[in-house]
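ugh ok fine here u go
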Amino acid sequence: ILDNAFANDRAIHCLSREFEFNALHRRLRCAPHSLNLVGQTIIQGFDLDACNN
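structure:
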């Protein structure tokens, strides 16, 4: 469960009660999405004109 949506917070909470684990230690936020955005920027290249100004 990776999204920041409230429904996913609730789902991980319910699963943690059912399977007896700490939801705070198992909850991932949107890090994979952030890494994807960084990777896309690297692949597509930076705007060199913006860097030179």
